[in-house]
Amino acid sequence: MPRRASGRRLPSQVLVETGTAEVREENLLQMTVDGWKVLLEWKGPGKPAGSIERCEGTTLVHFDLPKGPLGEYHISVQQPFIDIHRSWSGSVDCWRGSELTSIALNFSFNTAANFNLPVICNYARTGENRGVIGLIDHVTATLVNQRPLIEEPPMHLLQTRFSRQRRTGGFRETVVLCREKRHFVEAIRRVMKLCRQRQGIKPLPAPDWARDPVWCSWYSHLYGLTQRQVEEQIPHLKRLGVRTVLLDASWFKKPHEAYHRKSGDYRAELSLFPDLPGLSRRLHSEGLKLMLWCVPHFVGVHSRKRRAMGAYCVRDGKARSYQLCPFCDESKAYARALVERVMREYELDGLKLDFLDQFGPACADPAHNHGDGNFGAAVTEFMRAVRDGILHVNPAAAIEYRISYSTLATLPFANCHRGNDAPYDADYMRRENLFLRLFCDYPSAIWNDYAYWHALEKPENISLMLGQQIFSGGVPTLSINLAQCGQAQRRIIGRWLEFYRRSRDTLARAELSVHSADSSFSDSSLQNVEKGDAFVLLAGQHVPAKINLQPGIRRAWVLNAGAEKGGEMSLVSGKSETRLRLTQRGPVLASL
Ligand SMILES: [Zn+2]
Q: Measured in angstroms, how far is the CA atom of residue 458 from the centroid of ligand 1?
């Protein structure tokens, strides 16, 4: 909070500088903010205006782009690279299995409403923030690049550059900077919260039942799931307290058919599910919920819908893909009608929507109306149509999105946000839950990727996978054939789901803290000060000597999932400190 010389606090949002410290060259507008440079480069004859706003520990730099033709433009932030050890970026590369967590000389990633976040953070070896840099608008497609300026020696400035393209101007772009000296995760959370507030983003609330454990058929049965196999799970699901049954990408096609060729019709494959409406009624009568997998923008060449909808699929100039072009009104109307029909026909409680980050190549079909060419905005409207269709049939439905297209911009269109597929890597699951927790708070729900393990897996590892799911803030989800997995494994599942049942509501509203300075968030906690409870997860090499919790925390559960099987540590909350011996892999309770 900036202060006047008299010490009187300024109101929280005040325009303190307008047009000051700006340098204009032809098609370059430069603002200076506390020694950093913020630049706008644009094409065209109009003149943009710049202004600076201070707001609760952040600085907002506004650029008002002139009306008229615009094209490509770049917003850059230049900072000295002193005491920077590492970068965090809002980029998750799902299918290469990593987050971007280091500074290369020159790195780039793409974002839009339906993938990644236009935010980066540089931080010190201690974990202290050296600058969160982001754009307020998370919808418009963006190329984010960070590199030192190498054009002229000596090299001493690090530049973060956001490149966008719009046909016409007449709008405002805002850069958010947070340079507060606090842990970088707190600084990122602050920026994400500000972006959400300024954009008026209202997350779609998850129904209460969506915070109960989930069983998904994906890893356990892949493409061969039958109605009978689902029915075999029912007594185990009820005994363990699992609420939701999710039938994955198998229910509408024969096992050998490729889902992207058959997607579109979405009618139960009778050789696998002779009576899906009957199964739905049975699950409901047992107190369970039913969800189905669906990709509403895939219209495969083997689907009967292809003839009618092929003309609205993306065409890159040569070939027609199986993805609908999100700009077309016909695509949105079709997708809405599809999800309404599937929801109604099978009396569903929700849908798992897959691959919304994959709309194929840029569409160049001249028969489509691509409006102002803002792909992110078009995808957002497509998602809105799908959401509205689902909620029209069942206002309390769960809508599952997956990390990458679970972004700040898409929080209003889904209420359950899941990590990417990780059938054996519990560390990847844990990190993805923590990534989502940076911007995805109550009333959204975070769903783990579905826990799966080899039939001969060690009991300790099964327990650690389930424990990490819970301690990293996700709703526990399973993809295990419960009818075949054996009593010993079911007992481990039962113990963890019982722990989760008691902690469910406290965890849902807890706030994420990260206590380590490494790039994989190895020591973290979820703290609910109102309840006085904390859940501390240790997943690094060593048991840390000390972890500081927020004042007001009176009880802390600690799960040691790190490389060292045991150790001693202190927990501190306000003036209380307690010593703790960790000798087991289960949760250990400490009082403060
Ligand atoms: Zn198109």
A: 51
pTM exceeds 0.85, yes or no? yes
CA distance 154 to 148: 11
CB 328 within 8 A of CB 312: yes
How much is the pLDDT for 26? 83
Q: Is it the case that residue 303 has pLDDT exceeding 70? A: yes
**Cα(331) to centroid of ligand 1, in Å?**
10
Q: From ligand 1's centre to the CA of 311, what distance in Å?
A: 9
Q: Which pLDDT tens digit goes with each residue over 452-483?
A: 999 999 999 999 999 999 999 999 999 999 99
Taking the centre of ligand 1 as the mean of its atom positions, its distance from the CA of residue 369, in whole angstroms, is 7
The whole-angstrom separation of Cα 516 and Cα 358 is: 34
The mean pLDDT of the chain is: 94
Ligand 1 centroid – CA 321 distance (Å): 11
| Fold type of domain 13-198 | Immunoglobulin-like (2.60.40)
pLDDT in the model for residue 96: 79
Is residue 299 within 8 Å of residue 305, measured between CB atoms? yes
Determine the number of helices (DSSP H) and then strands (DSSP E) in the chain.
11, 34
Mean pLDDT of 517-536: 96
Cα of 224 from ligand 1 centre, angstroms: 35
- The alpha carbon of 361 and the centre of ligand 1 are apart by a number of angstroms equal to 10
The number of beta carbons lying within 10 Å of the beta carbon of residue 492 is: 17
Write down the domain spans for the chain: 13-198, 512-591
Ligand 1 centroid to Cα of residue 360, in Å, is: 11
